[in-house]
Design a protein that fits this description.
- The protein has twelve helices and 18 strands.
- It has helices at residues 17-20, 23-36, 89-99, 199-214, 229-234, 250-259, 279-285, 311-320, 338-352, 389-399, 406-411, 417-424; strands spanning 5-13, 41-49, 54-60, 63-70, 75-83, 104-112, 141-149, 154-168, 173-179, 183-188, 191-195, 219-224, 242-247, 272-276, 291-297, 321-330, 357-363, 371-378.
- The strands form two sheets. Strands 6-1-5-4-3-2-7-8-9-10-11 form an eleven-stranded mixed β-sheet. Strands 14-13-12-15-16-18-17 form a seven-stranded mixed β-sheet.
- The longest helix has 16 residues, at 199-214.
C-alpha cells in the first residue's frame, strides 16, 4: 500500500434511533468492529449526552475509530482510520452498518500519508536497555460516560458500560446505570434522579425537616418518589401511623427494587399504602384535611412531572392538608433552574401566605450545580426553626442518619444572599 494509513469517512442513515442513543450498545459495537477487522484495541472512551446523542472513540494500536450520533435523525458520523495494511477498515464499516440497523451508508476513503510524497529520515529513539522483557500491550481499558447537560452546563459520570435496567414506560424512559463513583444510578428521560451513594441527602432532608418541625405527623402523603427513599425515611418515625405513596410509573418502583434495594427497602412496610396512579387525580379526589404532611417528591417540571408544578395543583394540596399541615416540595436549583425556582416560590406564597413559605438548601453532588432547594409551606403555625432540637439530635443519632441532624436543620434555612434576592423578586 503506497500510503501510511487508510481513512474512511462514513455517514450511516436511517439507523435505529434507540440504538443511536444507547451508549452501551454503541461502545460494544465500536469495540467489536475494531476487533473483527483484526485491530488491537487499546482503550475506549464514550459519552452519552442528555437527552440524546453519543460521542466516542476506540483507540487501536493501528489508530482509531470515532463516532458521533444524532438519534433524532437516525444518523451517525463515523471516522475509521487504520495504519498499515494489517487491518481492513471496510470490515468495521460492514459490521457497524448492521449493528446500527442502518438502511444505507455513504463513505469516502482517503489514503493518508502517500509515501511517494514523503521522505523518510533517520529518526530513531535512543533507549537504555534495561534487560527486562518487553511488556505486552495491556488489556483494553474502557471509559463509558453518562452526561446530563443543557446548553451551558453538564455533569458526567463514568459507568461500567453495564446498563442494569432500560425500559420505556408510557410516561418516560427508565434506566439504571452502574456508575463507578456513586454506585447504581436511576435516570428518567436522561436526567439523574438518585444514586446509591448520595440519595440519603435528598431523602433525609425532604422528610425529617418537616416531620420534626411539625412534631405530630400521623398521616403523610408522598406524590412521586417511586424510588422509595422518601417513604423509607418517613417510616423511621414510629409516631407516623400511615404513609400513602402515589406513583404514576410502576417501572420506577420495579427498577429501584431490583437495582437500588437500599433505597426501595420500605415497600413492604405494613404502614405503607402504595398506589400506582396519577397523583394529580388522587389529590383532586382526596377529602379536605386528610393529611398532616404532603411531600411532592417529583422529577423536574417536564414529562409526567409537569402537572405537579401548577398553582391549581398546589391549591388542591393546600385543601387536603389538616389545619396545621405542611407541604414540602423539591423546588429545583436556584442556580440551574432559576426561573422555575423563583416562579414556584412566588406561587407558594400566593397560596400559603408570604410568611408561611420557607426555602432550605442541601448539597447533592449528582444534581445540577450540587445545590438543591426544598420548600417548606405551612398551612397553620408550624415554623421550621421552632422544633425540639434534643428530640432531633436523639433521632438522628439513634437512626444513624448520614446527613440530617439538629444543626443541619437550622443551617439549611440560612440562605446565601443571591438566593434571598431571588426569593424577594417578583415573577413578571
Amino acid at each position: 500500500m503506497d500510503a501510511l494509513g487508510r481513512h474512511i469517512l462514513v455517514e450511516f442513515y436511517n439507523c435505529s434511533p434507540e440504538l443511536m442513543n444507547d451508549v452501551v450498545h454503541i461502545e460494544n459495537s465500536m469495540v467489536a468492529a475494531a476487533e473483527t477487522a483484526g485491530a488491537t484495541v487499546i482503550n475506549s472512551t464514550f459519552h452519552h449526552f442528555s437527552p440524546y446523542g453519543v460521542s466516542g472513540v476506540v483507540v487501536i494500536q493501528e489508530s482509531h475509530l470515532a463516532i458521533h450520533t444524532w438519534p433524532e435523525y437516525g444518523y451517525a458520523a463515523v471516522d475509521l482510520f487504520t495504519c498499515g495494511d494489517s487491518v481492513d477498515p471496510w470490515v468495521s464499516y460492514n459490521y457497524l452498518k448492521e449493528a446500527f440497523e442502518a438502511s444505507h451508508g455513504s463513505s469516502m476513503e482517503c489514503r493518508r500519508g502517500q509515501q511517494s510524497l514523503l521522505k523518510r529520515t533517520n529518526f530513531t529513539v535512543e533507549s537504555r536497555d534495561s534487560g527486562q522483557p518487553v511488556r505486552p500491550i495491556p488489556s483494553i481499558t474502557r471509559d463509558v460516560w453518562f452526561t446530563e447537560r443543557d446548553e451551558n452546563i453538564a455533569l458526567s459520570l463514568k459507568h461500567s458500560g453495564n446498563q442494569l435496567y432500560k425500559k420505556q414506560s408510557p410516561y418516560q424512559k427508565v434506566e439504571v446505570f452502574e456508575t463507578l463513583a456513586y454506585g447504581n444510578m436511576l435516570t428518567l428521560d436522561g436526567m439523574v434522579m438518585c444514586t446509591q451513594k448520595d440519595e440519603y441527602v435528598y431523602h433525609e432532608m425532604i422528610t425529617h425537616v418537616p416531620v420534626l418541625s411539625h412534631g405530630n405527623v400521623k398521616r403523610a402523603l408522598v406524590i412521586g418518589g417511586g424510588d422509595g427513599g422518601t417513604v423509607r425515611e418517613l417510616l423511621r418515625h414510629d409516631s407516623i401511623e400511615e404513609v400513602v405513596l402515589v406513583e404514576i410509573d410502576e417501572l420506577v418502583i420495579e427498577a429501584c427494587k431490583q437495582h437500588l434495594p437500599e433505597t426501595a427497602s420500605a415497600f413492604g412496610h405494613p404502614k405503607l399504602k402504595l398506589l400506582i396512579e396519577d397523583g394529580i387525580k388522587y389529590i383532586q379526589d382526596t377529602p379536605d384535611g386528610s393529611f398532616d404532611l404532603i411531600i411532592v417528591d417529583s422529577a423536574d417540571p417536564v414529562g409526567p412531572g409537569e402537572g405537579l408544578f401548577t398553582a391549581d395543583f398546589y391549591s388542591q394540596v393546600y385543601r387536603c392538608l389538616t389545619s396545621d399541615g405542611v407541604m414540602i416540595t423539591q423546588s429545583e436549583s436556584p442556580r440551574f433552574n432559576t426561573d422555575v425556582f423563583v416562579e414556584i416560590f412566588d406561587t407558594y406564597k400566593g397560596i400559603f401566605g408570604q410568611d408561611k413559605v420557607h426555602c432550605y438548601l442541601a448539597a447533592i453532588p449528582t444534581y445540577p450545580t450540587g445545590t438543591w432547594s426544598f420548600s417548606f409551606c405551612s398551612k397553620g403555625n408550624v415554623h421550621p426553626k421552632q422544633f425540639n432540637q434534643e428530640v432531633a439530635a436523639a433521632f438522628s443519632r439513634e437512626q444513624g442518619l448520614r446527613y440530617y441532624n439538629e444543626d443541619i436543620h437550622v443551617a439549611a434555612f440560612a440562605l446565601p444572599n443571591f438566593v434571598k434576592d431571588l426569593l424577594a423578586s417578583k415573577v413578571l
